[in-house]
Write a structure and sequence with these properties.
The protein is about 55% helix and about 10% strand. The protein is of the alpha+beta class.
Length: about 220
């Protein structure tokens, strides 16, 4: 069955899944759900994912949401070039790094949160931008500290093999850049992300390489 990815160019979570599919060489079709038009709240997407968020992966009758769960599914169904280390400690480390970006930062900067801050608390756009940059900054500091705390990173977040951690860290940095964050305080993170973005799988998955994206360099 064809793999269908429901996504949108600016969705950082979709970026992670898109890159994972590319790394595994899995053909897929992307169905665009335009967040700027609120299509995530309309049919037919509403019936596919009542949570009204992206991404959603359809494969073999399954409908899977949440980017990290989708990536782990992809990794198990297409086990070549595993995105997880073999050892338990390594698996825990890459998942921990990934969760800083996916669980601690990303939920706080998405449009529904920014819209809530405006509608319920009257925060202006500059105030909401300050909010977003604050949480990106906190996450960046935490990630950089973790990368510097041991000698387990190499070309990528965990040695010289791309892992789930890299999918999360690249989306984190790309998102931070879209909000014009200063990343100079995280040189190790920047180096790892730069190495990842040299790979075709990441370059083709980049938000600004997708249909509908603005012609603005990241």
């Amino acid at each position: 069955m064809t793999v269908i990815l429901h996504g949108y160019w600016r969705s950082l979570a979709t970026f992670r899944v898109r890159a994972a599919l590319n790394l595994k060489g899995v053909p897929y079709r992307e169905n665009i759900v335009d967040l700027s038009k609120g299509e995530q709240f309309e049919q037919p997407y509403q019936s596919l994912n009542p949570q009204n968020v992206l991404p959603l992966l359809e494969h073999n009758g399954l409908r899977l949401s949440q980017s990290l769960a989708i990536v782990e599914y992809i990794n198990e169904v297409w086990p070549q070039d595993s995105l997880l280390p073999l050892d338990a400690a390594g698996k825990a480390r890459v998942r921990s790094l990934a969760q800083i970006a996916i669980a601690d930062v990303h939920p706080l900067i998405v449009p529904r949160v920014r819209n809530y801050l405006e509608q319920e608390y009257g925060l202006s756009e500059p105030a909401r931008l300050k909010w977003v940059r604050h949480w990106f900054g906190k996450g960046t500091q935490a990630i950089e500290a973790r990368l510097e705390a041991d000698d387990l990173s190499g070309l990528y977040a965990h040695g010289d093999q791309v892992s789930i951690a890299d999918l999360a860290l690249v989306s984190h940095v790309v998102g931070a850049r879209l909000f014009q964050m200063d990343m100079s305080g995280a040189p190790r993170l920047e180096e790892i992300v730069g190495n990842c973005l040299q790979l075709d799988a990441f370059a083709r998955a980049h938000p600004l390489a997708q249909a509908g994206a603005p012609a603005t360099p990241a």
